[in-house]
UniProtKB/TrEMBL annotation, chain A:
Family to which the UniProt record says this protein belongs: Belongs to the ABC transporter superfamily.
ATP-binding keyword on record: yes
SMART domains xrefs: AAA (SM00382)
Pfam family, one: ABC_tran
PROSITE patterns, per database record: ABC_TRANSPORTER_1 (PS00211), ABC_TRANSPORTER_2 (PS50893)
Gene3D superfamilies for the chain: P-loop containing nucleotide triphosphate hydrolases (3.40.50.300)
SUPFAM superfamilies: P-loop containing nucleoside triphosphate hydrolases
Protein name, as recorded: ABC transporter ATP-binding protein
Superkingdom to which the source organism belongs: Bacteria
Stretches assigned to the ABC transporter domain: 6-258
Keyword Glycoprotein part of the UniProt annotation: no
From TrEMBL, chain B:
GO terms classed as biological process: peptide transport
Organism, scientific name: Alsobacter metallidurans
Principal cellular location given in the protein's record: membrane
Family membership: Belongs to the ABC transporter superfamily.
Keyword rRNA processing: no
Name under which the protein is recorded: Peptide ABC transporter ATP-binding protein
Organism lineage: Bacteria, Pseudomonadati, Pseudomonadota, Alphaproteobacteria, Hyphomicrobiales
Length: 272, 350
């Protein structure tokens, strides 16, 4: 067994809230452990409602938030204590984020291609503008767009689904090993949701990129995930193979979640 | 529902309730466009372009469609929230409780005052934006409903407390500020607020989209039981097809500013006819179903420069020559099932 790509070892995060006199501690994540293997790409899903700690987990994996307990190792780097420019650059090369609302992720006053060129020159191999354009076009083609469609356009000129794909293309420019996607489809329309979700599958199968997919949507999670953990109030209540867990959840909370999913197959359960 | 709900059964049925098929809302070929003029460049976005449908008494009518399909503009037009650059270009919106006016946007202010909240109310998406953060919940109730219900302060408050019991809220929330309540509780407060005057018609715009799944199911059940108890009509807008499947009686599918299909909700799911609806239903992921989901090619139409003819034809697998030329009319292909598609209704275009 080789060293895993990502290892979370009893990670926890506590936020202190309040002033000098009344200090309250909120345990956002408690004792979370899992690993993602380096040799086999997979889609690892974290499911939970608001306040379950899933976004805090994502921020810790991305190195935005430091864990208050336990250790978080990525490819030999201690993410909780990244120090120095070289380490940080190496980490940012390998781990890329995709956020919930693509309209907030992009500066509305900046053309989209400029983001791609900047990323290509900073994290990609591009040395000059021509090469940056070539790399940007290549990345956009991987997500089903082309540079001609994005060039000179501002974020508001694209639909949410297209913009989210541009965000994924931007993340691909640095040839990452891991993508952390925090609710990437919750702002995207139902008809475009599957296109994005299927894209994640293609990234895993064709490019060998592991994806941490954070969501509260059980149906899309079922259709793409390999492994899954269900979080409630900072703790993992159930973990395992995605299909097995979602088909027959064991923990009362997971069962409650599963029952609350409104599927088109059992219509009119609320009527009468 | 049982228990505290029974306290407050409606005693005066609304006039005309005997005719269940009576339309409360009749939208007739409504057209609402955004018209802008900047530096001499005029632009027209045809967000709602000729939509016709009825909402009957005592039914939940669902509207589904992706963003930029015009569903939000349509309900803004129905609610009379017309502000430039949005303009009503043609058609009418007729409410049974407001005869003689072609819509709220064209009615005098006094008439709008009379109707609003008493006959027509709203449940909106962001409950935090609806409730005034600086006022306690009870003050918001007083602002909205006191003038319609009348009575002394004490009588009014008793009525509010009795009504809150229907949405299973403790009277203590009346003394709270909105930020002290959870998202689910706040949304229940807005539902109570929208239903306390027993309106004939409720417009619900994605009321549960911001809620967690477990809370969502709870809130939807509440909307259903209050609606059935009061016999109101609800226009329910969301892009979540799962919610439509569970809640609505009839469902209209919008695409590119037009209604493309309308049928009783179970029929839309079991027998979709329009190619866009077929795709929409087929693409829904289901737990326990491992067949891969196809995604639709292309992108939603640009309404500033929409495709000619049927607006779906550039993405449609069944597109024919006529589709690019002629707008397909809305035709009742099966009883109670209307579709606008040349492939489904050959020769329907006159």
């Amino acid at each position: 067994m080789s060293e895993p790509l990502l290892r979370l070892d009893h990670v926890s995060k506590t936020f202190a809230r309040g002033g000098f006199f009344s200090r309250r501690r909120i345990e956002a994540v408690k004792d979370l452990s899992f690993t993602i293997a380096a040799d086999k790409a997979e889609i690892f899903t974290i499911i939970g409602e608001s306040g379950s700690g899933k976004s805090t987990t994502a921020r810790m994996i991305l190195g935005i938030e430091r864990p208050t307990g336990g250790s978080l190792q990525f490819d030999g780097l201690d993410v909780g204590a990244l120090n120095g420019h070289a380490d940080r650059m190496r980490f940012m090369h390998a781990v890329q984020p995709i956020f919930q609302n693509p309209f907030e992720a992009f500066n509305p006053l900046k053309q989209l291609d400029r983001y791609l060129f900047l990323t290509a020159r900073r994290f990609g191999a591009a040395r000059d503008q021509a090469e940056a354009e070539r790399l940007a076009d290549e990345a956009l083609r991987k997500v089903g767009l082309s540079l001609a469609e994005a060039k000179g356009r501002f974020p508001h000129e694209l639909s949410g689904g297209q913009l989210q794909r541009v965000a994924i293309a931007r993340a691909l420019l640095s040839n990452p090993k891991l993508i952390v996607a925090d609710e990437p489809v919750s702002m995207v329309d139902a008809s475009l949701r599957m296109a994005i979700v299927n894209l994640f599958k293609a990234l895993r199968d064709e490019l060998g990129i592991s994806i941490i997919y954070i969501t509260h949507d059980l149906a899309t999670a079922y259709s793409i995930s390999d492994r899954i953990i269900i979080m409630q109030k900072g703790e993992v209540v159930e973990a395992g193979d995605a299909r097995a867990v979602l088909a027959a959840p064991q923990h009362p909370y997971s069962r409650q979640l599963r029952e609350a999913v409104l599927t088109p197959d059992s219509p009119r359960a609320l009527a009468s | 529902m049982s228990g505290p709900v029974a306290l407050h059964t409606p005693t005066t049925p609304v006039a005309g309730a005997a005719l269940a098929s009576d339309p409360v809302l009749r939208v007739n070929d409504i057209q609402a466009h955004f018209r802008t003029q900047h530096f001499g460049v005029s632009r027209e976005v045809r967000a709602v372009d000729g939509v016709t449908f009825d909402v009957r008494r005592n039914e939940i009518y669902g509207l589904a469609g992706e963003s930029s399909s015009g569903k939000t503009t349509l309900i803004k037009t129905i609610a009379g929230a017309i502000k430039p650059p949005l303009q009503v270009v043609g058609g009418s919106v007729q409410f049974s409780f407001m005869p003689g006016y072609p819509g709220l946007h064209a009615a005098p202010a006094a008439e709008v005052e009379r109707v609003r909240w008493r006959h027509l109310s709203y449940v909106m998406q962001g409950s935090m934006n609806v409730l005034n953060p600086m006022r306690r919940v009870i003050s918001t109730f007083q602002d909205f409903a006191w003038r319609h219900l009348g009575g002394s302060r004490k009588q009014f408050e008793e009525r509010v407390v009795a009504h809150l019991a229907r949405v299973r809220l403790d009277p203590a929330v009346l003394r709270a500020y909105p930020h002290e309540l959870s998202g689910g509780m706040r949304q229940r407060v807005t539902i109570a607020l929208a239903t306390i005057c027993k309106p004939d018609f409720i417009i619900a715009d994605e009321p549960t989209t911001a809620l967690d799944v477990i809370v969502q199911k709870d809130v939807l059940g509440m909307i259903r039981s209050i609606q059935q108890e009061m016999g109101s009509s609800v226009l329910f807008v969301t892009h979540d097809m799962g919610v439509h499947a569970h809640l609505t009686d009839r469902l209209g599918i919008m695409y590119g500013g037009r209604l493309v299909e309308e049928a009783p909700t179970p029929e839309i799911f079991s027998r979709p006819l329009h190619p866009y609806t077929v795709y929409l239903i087929g693409s829904l992921p289901r737990i326990g179903d491992d067949t891969p989901r196809k995604s639709l090619e292309g992108s939603p139409p640009n309404l500033a420069d929409p495709p000619t003819g049927c607006r779906f034809h550039p993405r449609c697998p069944l597109a024919m020559e006529v589709c690019a030329r002629q707008v397909p009319p809305m035709v009742e292909s099966l009883p109670g099932h209307r579709v606008a598609c040349h492939a489904v209704n050959p020769g329907a275009a006159a």
